[in-house]
């Protein structure tokens, strides 16, 4: 029988015998610990030996209201006793109907139709295919390309990866991918000396206009992550870019796809990031926080105009032939409904604003750190950019893996911080307290101090 103090080691051995983990060089686990989590409590994760870790990244940005949330758990248990799954072609069920109705009410005006899928990458695939197919049905088969931003990330299936620009993910599979048209990101970190984030956004809109003038005739859509390019390094930009982009897409007759998978559901300070630009996209992709981090589910919302382009007699051949076995899964839809109910019943966004302000205050001293080039924040997302030279912003060589040092230190101090390269970021569940934020920042500061030491 395994002794309690050896439970982590035993589970890790069993895991590494058979499991291949995502976004991982498995060789790392010869010196990086595999942490077996056996339960969760609010913002905390507990391993098999009883060690506790404050989840500073919401378990890959999914968890909104804490692990093992009792409201969502009760809703799932109730649904599991009623209907666990049913084919979603020719059949429907109340949780999906109610969820679609609520999403249409919550999202920007004009988004009237909901297409369910089962993860964020799948949602992006749906939006890309639907945009292309719309133009094909309209007699514009020449529109086959997409415009994306430099530094963008939209997922790792082939279509989603095709409109991504993070070399770490894209380079290996480039021969298999479509080639996007890349527009320079409005990332404020890339602004010219003395330039405000809004001025950077304006300048980058000019570049987008130039691309559309040249390529609109062959372009289906522009796809962006509103306000924060997350996997690309938590790059942030001014909402005026969204406002201007909507006008450009209308002017040049291309679709606007908003990938709100990571930034939706209150992450940026508003329910959806697009609200801060006062825009409604043609397609909005949602996932991650949609179910509060409990089950995989995604949704693509679009307009009546797009829907109408597919609505025809069967023999016209205009139907949108895309499906997933678990499309509209009742359990996932029920979890999403309870997640939205928490937003209705509790002052979530108001509380988030207070927590975000506290996080900003605690991170402010790092702006003076000799190895910190930038501290940036958008709502409940904050990032600290570590560099070898502050004045020139010269980065640390990636092979030195300074961010990994922060991660490993965090584990010893009861904090889950998983940097993106040398960018230490914070994206905690909304149920953290100010004391929890203090703990995350204190541990991060300690880890940074260790990481930048030669």
UniProtKB/TrEMBL annotation:
Pathway named in the protein's UniProt entry: Cofactor biosynthesis; biotin biosynthesis; 7,8-diaminononanoate from 8-amino-7-oxononanoate (SAM route): step 1/1
Residues carrying N6-(pyridoxal phosphate)lysine: 288
GO MF: adenosylmethionine-8-amino-7-oxononanoate transaminase activity; pyridoxal phosphate binding
Catalyzed reaction equations: (8S)-8-amino-7-oxononanoate + S-adenosyl-L-methionine = S-adenosyl-4-methylsulfanyl-2-oxobutanoate + (7R,8S)-7,8-diammoniononanoate
Cofactor(s) annotated in UniProt: pyridoxal 5'-phosphate
Enzyme Commission no: 2.6.1.62
Keywords: Aminotransferase, Biotin biosynthesis, Cytoplasm, Pyridoxal phosphate, S-adenosyl-L-methionine, Transferase
Residues annotated for pyridoxal 5'-phosphate binding in this entry: 120-121, 259, 324-325
Record site: Participates in the substrate recognition with KAPA and in a stacking interaction with the adenine ring of SAM: 23
Family: Belongs to the class-III pyridoxal-phosphate-dependent aminotransferase family. BioA subfamily.
Protein known as: Adenosylmethionine-8-amino-7-oxononanoate aminotransferase
């Amino acid at each position: 029988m395994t002794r309690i103090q050896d439970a982590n080691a035993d589970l890790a051995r069993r895991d590494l015998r058979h499991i291949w983990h995502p976004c991982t060089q498995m060789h790392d686990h010869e010196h990086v610990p595999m942490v077996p989590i056996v339960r969760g409590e609010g913002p905390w994760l507990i391993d098999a030996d009883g060690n506790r870790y404050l989840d500073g990244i919401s378990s890959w940005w999914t968890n909104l209201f804490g692990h093992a949330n009792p409201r969502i758990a009760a809703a799932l248990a109730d649904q599991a006793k009623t209907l666990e799954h049913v084919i979603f072609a020719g059949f429907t069920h109340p949780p999906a109907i109610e969820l679609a109705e609520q999403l249409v009410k919550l999202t920007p005006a004009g988004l009237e139709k909901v297409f369910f899928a089962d993860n964020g990458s799948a949602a992006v695939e749906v939006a890309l295919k639907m945009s292309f197919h719309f133009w094909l049905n309209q007699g514009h088969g020449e529109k086959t390309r997409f415009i994306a931003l430099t530094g963008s990330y939209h997922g790792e299936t082939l279509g989603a990866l095709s409109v991504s620009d993070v070399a770490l993910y894209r380079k290996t599979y480039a021969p298999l991918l479509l080639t996007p048209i890349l527009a320079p990101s409005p990332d404020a970190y890339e602004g010219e000396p003395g330039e405000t984030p809004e001025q950077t956004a304006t300048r980058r809109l000019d570049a987008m206009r130039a691309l559309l003038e040249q390529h609109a005739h062959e372009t289906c859509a522009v796809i962006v992550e509103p306000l924060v390019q997350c996997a690309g390094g938590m790059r942030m930009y001014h909402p005026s870019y969204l406002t201007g982009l909507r006008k450009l897409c209308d002017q040049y007759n291309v679709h606007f796809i908003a990938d709100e998978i990571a930034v939706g559901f209150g992450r940026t300070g508003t329910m959806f990031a697009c609200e801060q630009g006062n825009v409604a996209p043609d397609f909005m992709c949602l996932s991650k926080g949609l179910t509060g981090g409990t089950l995989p589910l995604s949704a693509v919302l679009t307009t009546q105009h797009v829907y109408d382009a597919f609505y025809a007699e069967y023999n016209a051949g205009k139907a949108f032939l895309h499906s997933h076995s678990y499309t509209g899964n009742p359990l996932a839809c029920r979890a999403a409904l309870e997640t939205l109910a928490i937003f209705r019943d509790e002052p979530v966004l108001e509380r988030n604003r207070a927590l975000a302000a506290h996080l900003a205050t605690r991170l402010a001293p790092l702006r003076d750190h000799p190895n910190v080039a930038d501290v940036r924040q958008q709502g409940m997302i904050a990032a600290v950019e570590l560099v070898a030279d502050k004045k020139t912003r010269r980065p640390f060589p990636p092979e030195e893996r300074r961010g990994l040092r922060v991660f490993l230190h965090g584990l010893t101090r009861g904090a889950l911080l998983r940097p993106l390269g040398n960018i230490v970021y914070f994206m905690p569940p909304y149920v953290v307290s100010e004391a929890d934020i203090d703990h995350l920042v204190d541990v991060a500061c300690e880890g940074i101090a260790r990481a930048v030491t030669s």
